[in-house]
Amino acid sequence: MSHLPTPVPETPPADPQGWLRAGAGSGRQDGAAGRLLPRALLAPAVAVLVLWMLAPLLMSIYFSFVNYNLMQPGERTFNGIENFHYFVTDPDFWPAVWNTLVLIGSVIVITVVLGVGLALLVNEPFPGRGIVRVLLISPFFVMPTVNALLWKHMMMNPIYGVLADLWRAFGAEPVDWLTDLPLFSVIIMVAWQWLPFACLIFITSLQSLDREQMEAARMDGATAFQRFGYLTLPHLGRPMAVVIMIEMIFLLSVFAEIAITTAGGPGNESTNLTYMIFKQSLMNFDVGVASAGALFAVVLANIVAAFLIRIIGKNLD
Amino acid sequence: MAYLQLDDIQKSFGDTHVIKGVSLEIDKGEFIVFVGPSGCGKSTLLRLIAGLESITSGRLSLDGKDITHTPSGKRDLAMVFQSYALYPHMSVFDNMSFALKLAGVSKDVIKSKVDYAAKTLNLTQYLARTPKELSGGQRQRVAIGRAIVRAPKVFLFDEPLSNLDAALRGNTRVEIHKLHRALGATSIYVTHDQVEAMTLADRVVVLRDGLIEQVGTPMELYDRPANQFVAQFIGMPSMNMVEAKAIPSFSAQTGGRLPADGFLGVRPEALRVRQGQGLGAPARVELIEALGADTLIHIDVGGVPLVARQNERTALQAGDAVSVELDPAVLHFFNREGRTVAA
Amino acid sequence: MDENRLSLILRAVAAWIVTLLLFFPLGWLVLTSFKTELQAIHVPPLFIFEPTLDNFTEVQRRSDYLLFARNSLITSIGSTIIGLAIAAPAAYSMAFFRTRRTRDILMWMLSTKMMPAVGALVPIYVIAQTAGLLDTRSALTIVFTLSNLPIMVWMLYTSYKDIPPEILEAARMDGANLWTEFRHVVLPLSIGGLASTGLLCLILSWNEAFWALNLSSAKAGTLATMIASYSSPEGLFWAKLSAASVMAIAPIVVFGWFSQKQLVQGLTFGAVK
Questions:
Q1: What does the alpha-carbon distance between residue C87 and residue A38 come to, in Å, rounded to a whole number?
Q2: Closest residue on chain A to B50 (Cα)
Q3: For residue A304, which of A253, A259, A266 has the smallest C-alpha distance?
Q4: Considering the domain A37-316, what is its CATH architecture?
Q5: Distance from CA of B154 to the nearest CA of C (A)
Q6: pTM for this one?
Q7: Least CB-CB distance to C173: which of B79, B83, B87?
Q8: In chain A, domain spans
């Protein structure tokens, strides 16, 4: 209007920390809420977690530099980086690394791709959707040991298993899954268990898809595929990243399925890093080497965790 | 010493200096409105008075007592929040009686006080309901009722009408006004809506950037604004601002009273628009806004856009040539810094 | 309209087929638990048969199901209670007395959950062995508590944060001190969050296999270890395995149906809205 100083609407000062929108505790004049109480409330959790983190870490570091076997207590001589050397040159090492990568990678691909597909399928209402969701979610809550044996015996047994029956129904020779395709079998088990997780995440994320944006795209003439590619997929980008990282972290520790079904074998065909370290520690009782391996796994996990923390941190405030 | 007194109140959040020295004297029974653009600190000031934020420096006293460092619960103040802040898990009755219950008041006294407040606010049939089951307007009344029951020394209102729709806002505003007349309680009311400020206040405090721009009755602020900011903040549509020399015809009309430099302020109702050529400044109609009872005429006076207001219908149309006259009795002059100067 | 109906039918059919396929192994497990051993290994697979409850009673008798079930119950409930007792105050402190460090502390806590359990296997085993705590419920309870603590703190933190701060301010204006504010406002409003956090911890502890398998066996073993003992078969055992499995997983699967939302929140550390 007039080209003169008109009252400019003031923008409130930038406040990324949320300080200016004071939290419920600020401004309190009560004495108790000074410094002491909040710290006292926080202390047990922090103390306990510090212990939980630090004690094993320090012990592992110590053990990884000594020669220590649980079967020969009392002999703990310092042997430098020999444990690390031994671990890395173990004939099982590279296969274990490879298997770990294949396992994590395959499960991630399967769960993400199928997860997105399933989420899209189930997103719009249809008769019986409630029951479908309940059924889909169930495998995730089955304990890993049951999961393992369910597949090992009921599904994958080459003579009596359901898959064997299926193969025979098509006139083919049943596959001896655990012997011939051990890693693949483990991948199937783990993927079956984690698919509901990914699916649920994507379903949740799809709920927050902007309907109006979709309708605008429709009116602009976008086909279903185009809408998926330009709108849905980018929206799912963030949850996909989260799912991938979470699975990376938790799949590193796959243990029960391997221990109970293939015991890492035949040979080392289905041994992953976790199982290999386990073998060293509780089967060979070589604590030194196992600790070296454990540190290796921890470093790996730290790298992935660092990325995940950054994403979470952005969401926090 | 006034009933509620603020002495050079300052507030900083970390390094950000938000309230930069506010002094104010409020008498008992006054209805004071804090008004200003967003970010001016009006809500912060209210929260300082309430005790929800700590005062960095300065003094706050109520009824003779220094309450600068007293905890909120002990200041004998009640606050009505913008979002009502009702306890979602408690019934209306429990919401309104919570403070009294904490203070250990007997059940009978509580019941009579709550019943009375509920009757005053037409909430009696809702006493057993929870906030979820109430409409926005009803929740608002419960929030007010919660404050009334406590019979505090001062009522604090933090933009209570912002979350209501327009029709309800008008009605509730009137109800608050009537309530104040009935109870006569000292009240501080924060709003960004100047209509509420003008209609509800005994005195208005205009704030900008953590400082008081002017304090006065609504009419004082309207007729004698202390500076350009207040002049353009109060009044809808806002006062027209013209550079002193921009429109030669105006200089002539005011008989040379215009200061050499600075600005001329004219309220829309002080401009008279006549068809065709005449004694006033030549102008062209840009836009007509017919509101029914009033008409707003947007005109272009030699490149300067102005708004005129009249309480009649008009036959004028966009593009018409008109002449614009000033009412010389209600002019405002401002110097370069924006302060009002006498003509 | 017809096109919409058609796509709806197609989608429904597709969804049902996929779901039934994915659910099949579980369904088959449940079915088998009602068969006799001979029926269980019957080729081709039997869908229609005379159901029997013998397996369930047999499992009880044979592998002392009750012992393992009791261990599972004690360790999961124990770790949940202890976990809540430690996590709730911490979350309360971080939600309502926020400082500049709060975010870092929270992130750090979450990061401890991201470390592979195998990294701590050796030290924890050695500690447990030295302290004579191998194969004890105490050891398992402690380890479960520590494993789940970060998630519990996180979830309780978000549920406390969900309480609108104005309500707490209103309570302060009404004269509430810290304790009455907690008792009358915070507690009632956060009970839901506490319950769902507890439920999640219960589920995670119950299903925990890594530590259970490595730190316990005959005396303190949980249902997870009991099932594992079926991996080396002696004679026909599928029906019994199924029965044992069903008994081991049933409560948790049902709980899981109720805690889907908390699961997403907890396990993704809130990174997905």
A1: 13
A2: A27
A3: A253
A4: Orthogonal Bundle (1.10)
A5: 12
A6: 0.82
A7: B79
A8: 37-316
